[in-house]
Amino acid sequence: MPVIIDGHNLLHSIQQTGEDSEPISGIQLCRILSGYLKLIDENGEIVFDGTGPRDKSGFDNISNLEVFFAGLGSDADTVIEDKIKVSTAPRRLTVVSSDRRLRDTARARKATAVKSEIFWNNLRKQLSRKKTFKEPTAKRRGLTESETKQWLEFFGLEQ
Q1: Is residue 14 part of a domain?
Q2: Tally of structural domains, the chain
Q3: Of 79, 64, 116, 120, nearest to 95 (Cα)?
Q4: Range of the structural domain that residue 81 is part of
Q5: What is the distance, to the nearest Å, from the Cα of residue 150 to the centroid of all Cα atoms in its chain?
Q6: What is the pLDDT of residue 101?
C-alpha cells in the first residue's frame, strides 16, 4: 500500500510527542522512513512545504521514498490532495497527515487516512522490534571435508 506523507505535519507531530530530545531534520526523517518502508516492503512519497534546502543532495540515495517540495506557488497539502485525486488505485493509498482536509480527501477516494501521531507511534514500534534471523545450520556444523579441501586448493594451501 503506497504511502503519501505530509512531511512538515509529521515533523511537527514528532516534536509534539517530546520523545526525542533533539528535533530531527527533514533528511533524518526521510532516512527513518526509508528504513521503515524497506521493513514493510513498501514505497512512499513525502511532500514538504516550500522549496526545501538549497543543497538537496542529502535527500539522494534514499530508497523506497520519493521526496517532493511543494515550491513557492503551492503548499504540501495541495500537492498531496492532487496526488490523491489523480491516483489510479486510491484504495491502495495510505495518506499520513493530521490535517483534516487531507484525511477527508483520502477517505472520499476510499484511501486509508492515518493521523501523523498514530503513524509515528506505529513506525517506532515496528522499528524497535528485534529482528530474529535463524542461523544457517552450516554455520554451527562447519564445512564438510570436501568443501574444506576445495577451499584449500582454491587458495593454494593444499595439505
Answers
A1: yes
A2: 1
A3: 116
A4: 3-132
A5: 43
A6: 94
